[in-house]
Specification:
The protein is α+β, with helices and mostly antiparallel strands and 253 residues long. The chain is 37% helix and 20% strand. GO terms for molecular function: ATP hydrolysis activity.
Length: 253
């Protein structure tokens, strides 16, 4: 399982064999449901690096899984598998997994960790924020209760009305007439938001299809390599049998 995700993308004519069997390539991002793509712009030594795209979502086994964290690659090689960036207390962040390629930070000599630089710490902090933001927005999809948003406090002085419990109430405002500019603006805004949501959903579907096609292509490539190896082995065995037969005919004559 570890070898199957060791590389973010396998080059052509390359495969990993373990105990005589080819290890099938696997992209963790294809396991994520309700996934999103989040752009992160790292900054190193005062110069901005290129944007990094992080794929984040729930594992397909969620919520019946305790795994969470980020698979962080460096130049397509896995350095930190499922790095936990938060303490999943009270199930918060449970099943949330992300995949990203962080070429802007330097791994250690053993390729098992990253150098604990200021840039690395900023990345971990941002990944923690991503996890919390994603969980707060999508946890209801798994049956969890979404956290309540804090209500902004308001002070209206003498124009506010006092309730029986001593809390201030907003002054009653008449409903705007139907067809007023505020209603038309609200309807246009909602339509724009709905259109944007549909476009994002369609984009996510296309991204998922691309990942699936890419995975299928790699699997077919591995099968082709395996068949070519078997064919070469059969040809060598056939040639060996021919030599044996030729040698036997010579002795008989």
């Amino acid at each position: 399982a570890y070898l199957s995700i060791l590389y973010l993308k396998l080059p052509e004519a390359f495969c990993i064999a373990l105990r005589g069997k080819v290890v099938l390539y696997h992209n963790t991002a294809t396991d994520l449901k309700h996934h999103e793509f989040i752009r992160y712009k790292p900054q190193r030594d005062g110069s901005k690096e290129g944007p990094v795209i992080t794929t984040i979502g729930f594992l397909k086994e969620a919520p019946h899984v305790k795994v969470h964290g980020f698979n962080i690659y460096h130049k397509r090689r896995l350095i930190l598998p499922y790095l936990p960036v938060i303490c999943a207390s009270n199930n918060k962040g449970r099943g949330v997994v992300g995949v990203l390629e962080a070429d802007f930070i330097q791994p250690t000599h053993s390729k098992q960790d990253f150098e604990k630089t200021n840039v690395y710490q900023k990345l971990v902090t941002r990944l923690k924020e991503m996890t919390v933001e994603y969980w707060d927005t999508h946890c209801e999809l798994l049956g969890y209760t979404a956290p309540r948003k804090a209500q902004p406090s308001s002070a209206f002085g003498s124009c506010s009305k006092q309730g029986s419990n001593g809390k201030r109430k907003l002054p009653e405002q008449p409903d705007p007439p139907e067809g007023s500019p505020s209603i038309r603006t609200s309807e246009a805004y909602n339509a724009q938001i709905q259109k944007k949501t549909l476009l994002l959903q369609e984009n996510s579907k296309l991204k998922q299809q691309c990942l699936n096609h890419e995975m299928s292509e790699k699997e077919l490539s591995l099968k082709l390599m395996k068949l070519q190896a078997e064919l070469k082995e059969a040809e060598q065995e056939y040639a060996s049998l021919l030599r044996v037969c030729s040698s036997g005919d010579g002795v008989h004559s």
